[in-house]
């Protein structure tokens, strides 16, 4: 399989790209797709995939989960970690996931396809991710014959994935484009060139905290290399739009921005109840402030905010607080307490020193 | 004219009733109503009313304004002080207002009627206001013959005011009824008994900061005494509903209330831009906290909040800050600065000592 040439000029230090991800959709030759298979057939696929994955170096000391054996809480943890999709979250016989020890790689079994392998990394790191997932894919292929057509490429349960079976995505933080009402324009533009913008949790999900996932729509008729290059290129372009929007807002409406930042810090410090969406919104505002140099702490503080954007999600929050059966209202209280404590230690805003 | 018996048990110390007001609609016998008069006739009415008013003790050292001589800024000041109505704010030849030195009494000339005399006072103080306005009315009547029909009573430009020409109103702070979605029910109930609930600025105005004006609809077929007694009675009843709603919320959803209070204090301290409606909302939340004993400072602090609820209005704000031509956005900045300074000195919230 063609290797993507390492292209260090595509790697950027900007924190606008929060994470990069590649996933491959694969099916076993000679077996029915998961949506048409009997329960026994699903179990056989599960067992053979699990066996192969357990032998791979990437999954050494990882965890294999049968989704139906997991509590609602544990499933939601995996979903919030982005190790499983919304579809797998809902359960089903013969379905599960292998998660690597560090959480950076996972392989869903019998989701839409027999295997959906993904690798995630912080920042814009697509070349390294491609090397890693390509190696994983090659390793699996040594033991499993994939459903493959010389004419079409990899065969998948849904026609949209046929060909390379690849989805390359960048999770991007675009608050200034949201503030300046430019996201709709960006989404339209991206759609026109065969890519797609979604909320942080993939298809059908809403964007919270101005986090958007940019990924390829097309999997057929382009090589993996070309798809990655395209996403890289348009990711850079959107980052540039976001940067321009930030500079323009700081120039044209500094008080509007300062107001957003000051309120976000004050509310996170003071609220007594806060739901997930609102918490993500204010963390997003402070992430923008930090990224614009209006809060000290640099990359480390941005990393803390990114971690908090996961910690405030329902299951992670309960794990953090040691409470596993909290009602939504109780969670809103716990979330407020957690954020009050953390926000009290955030670096001060530097709003009057332009 | 019948005097309302002083009824001290109707006077309450609760700060739920913010102000009481009575206004009388009067017209000069033998003259066309203002809406049908020539400009010359309006000027004659203006001059004769102004002359009579200037001789009254209540208006000694007061100010007479011809509305068309005033700047937009000055008109708005009078409107924000509730000395003139929205209709008079819009100007017009031969129209104006006499305002007493302490601002508690005013008499609009050639608004809808030739004369609209009003007296305002803090708290539930209708008996004293009635004595005061009744004396004013009697004094005017010594020099002006009112349009009066033995069958109908005082004749007015709009049929809804014929009879007593009286409007008795209580400005009430009802945040717990708003929080618990009970205001619609209260408004329906009040309408059924011939009274009306409006926003703070009268007919057609919205309620900001959970401030509502409860007043009589009916002016015909009831004596002034009866109307005042009714408003007093239903004012007490609505105060009781509000008090019950407060106790119930504190019992059932203390964290919901604490969250509102903590956010209000934090935002007033930290915001960099804030419009009038939002400022009134947060001041209203803190007024509730203070009234529920969750902020120290007692009646004095509530008085400070009430004053601030006027100071944040566009013209008062500009007077306070010494800027008279601020754009709406500039005003939002000035308002934030003013509130940041004041809120920094507010008493602390006592949220964890129930």
Descriptive account of the structure:
By secondary structure, chain A is an alpha+beta fold. In chain A, 45% of the residues lie in helices and 15% in strands. Chain A has two domains: 17-242, Glutamine synthetase/guanido kinase, catalytic domain (Creatine Kinase, Chain A, domain 2, 2-Layer Sandwich); 253-343, no CATH class. In chain A, the strands form two sheets. Chain A has an eight-stranded antiparallel sheet with strand order 2-3-4-5-1-8-10-9, covered by helices on one side. In chain A, strands 6-7 form a two-stranded antiparallel ribbon. In chain A, helix 7 crosses helix 8 (254-270), helix 8 packs across helix 12 and helix 9 runs antiparallel to helix 10. The longest helix of chain A has 29 residues, at 224-252. The A-B interface holds A 255-256, 258-259, 262-263, 265-267, 269-274, 329, 333, 336, 351 and B 255-256, 258-259, 262-263, 265-267, 269-274, 329, 333, 336, 351.
Q: What is the radius of gyration of chain A?
A: 21 Å
What is the succession of H and E elements of chain A? EHEHHEEEHEEEHHEEHHHHHH
Determine the fraction of residues in helical runs of chain A and give it as a percent range: 40-55%
Mean pLDDT of chain A: 91
For the secondary structure, the number of strands of chain A is: 10
**N- to C-terminal separation of chain A?**
51 Å
Helix tally of chain A equals: 12
CATH superfamily of the largest domain in chain A: Glutamine synthetase/guanido kinase, catalytic domain
Q: How are strands sequenced across the largest beta sheet of chain A?
A: 2-3-4-5-1-8-10-9
**What portion of the residues of chain A fall into strands of 2 or more residues?**
15-25%
Question: How many strands, which pairing sense, and closed or not: the largest β-sheet of chain A?
Answer: 8 strands, antiparallel
Identify the quaternary structure here. Answer: homodimer
Instruction: Give me the CATH architecture of the largest domain in chain A, please.
Output: 2-Layer Sandwich
């Amino acid at each position: 399989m063609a290797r993507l040439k390492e292209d260090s000029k595509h790697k950027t230090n900007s924190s606008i790209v929060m994470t990069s991800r590649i996933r491959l959709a694969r099916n076993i030759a000679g077996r029915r797709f998961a949506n048409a298979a009997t329960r026994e057939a699903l179990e056989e696929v599960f067992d053979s995939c699990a066996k192969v994955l357990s032998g791979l170096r990437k999954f050494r000391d990882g965890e294999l989960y049968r989704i139906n054996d997991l509590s609602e809480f544990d499933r939601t943890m995996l979903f919030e970690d982005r190790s499983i999709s919304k579809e797998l979250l809902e359960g089903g016989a013969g379905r599960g996931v292998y998660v690597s020890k560090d959480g950076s790689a996972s392989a869903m079994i019998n989701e839409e396809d027999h295997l959906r392998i993904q690798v995630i990394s912080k920042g814009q790191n697509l070349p390294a991710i491609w090397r890693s997932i390509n190696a994983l894919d090659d390793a699996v292929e040594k033991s499993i014959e994939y459903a493959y057509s010389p004419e079409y490429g990899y065969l998948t349960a849904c026609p949209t994935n046929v060909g390379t079976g690849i989805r390359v995505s960048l999770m991007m933080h675009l608050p200034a484009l949201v503030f300046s009402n430019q996201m709709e324009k960006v989404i339209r533009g991206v759609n026109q060139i065969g890519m797609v913008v979604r909320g942080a949790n993939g298809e059908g999900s809403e964007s919270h905290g101005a986090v958007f996932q940019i990924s390829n729509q097309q999997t057929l008729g382009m090589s993996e290399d070309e798809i990655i290059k395209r996403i890289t290129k348009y990711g850079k372009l959107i980052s540039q739009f976001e940067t321009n929007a930030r500079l323009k807002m700081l120039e044209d409406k500094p008080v509007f921005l300062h107001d957003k930042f000051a309120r976000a810090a004050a509310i996170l410090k003071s609220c007594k109840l806060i739901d997930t969406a609102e918490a993500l919104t204010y963390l997003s505002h402070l992430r923008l402030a930090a990224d614009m140099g209006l809060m000290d702490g640099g990359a480390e503080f941005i990393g803390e905010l990114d971690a908090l954007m996961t910690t405030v999600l329902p299951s992670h929050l309960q794990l953090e607080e040691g409470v596993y059966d909290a009602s939504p209202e109780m969670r809103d209280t716990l979330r407020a307490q957690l954020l009050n404590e953390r926000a009290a230690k955030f670096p001060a805003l530097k709003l009057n020193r332009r």
